[in-house]
Amino acid sequence: MNKLSEVEIGSAIAQLSGWAIVDDKLQKNFKFKDFVEAFGFISKVAIVADKMGHHPELFNVYNKIRIDLTTHDVNGISNLDFELAQKIDKLL
């Protein structure tokens, strides 16, 4: 697993919807009907991430969730982050 270049990141992020690079992390914000719906989504993300062995940074305030993806082993963004982002989007 390697850290992606800016060109590789630009190409990969073009395949996603709503994700952006913020502070050298792949980030997306989500808004749900209420806290229970938001927390249910977090639980689904946790199951997918754990199966991949790749754990996101999750931030939750009531019905809002922010997810940051980075690969700490390579000190940046890798293909694993984009793979997880795609899987997260399919949970919606």
Automatic annotation (TrEMBL):
Molecular function as annotated in GO: 4-alpha-hydroxytetrahydrobiopterin dehydratase activity
Keyword terms, alphabetized: Lyase
CDD domains per record: PCD_DCoH_subfamily_b (cd00914)
Gene Ontology BP term (one): tetrahydrobiopterin biosynthetic process
UniProt entry tagged with the keyword Lyase: yes
Enzyme Commission number, as recorded: 4.2.1.96
Pfam family, one: Pterin_4a
Enzyme class, UniProt record, top EC level: lyase
Domain of life: Bacteria
Coiled-coil ranges from the UniProt annotation: none
Catalytic reaction(s) noted: (4aS,6R)-4a-hydroxy-L-erythro-5,6,7,8-tetrahydrobiopterin = (6R)-L-erythro-6,7-dihydrobiopterin + H2O
Family listed: Belongs to the pterin-4-alpha-carbinolamine dehydratase family.
The name this protein goes by in its record: Putative pterin-4-alpha-carbinolamine dehydratase
UniProt lineage: Bacteria, Bacillati, Cyanobacteriota, Cyanophyceae, Pseudanabaenales
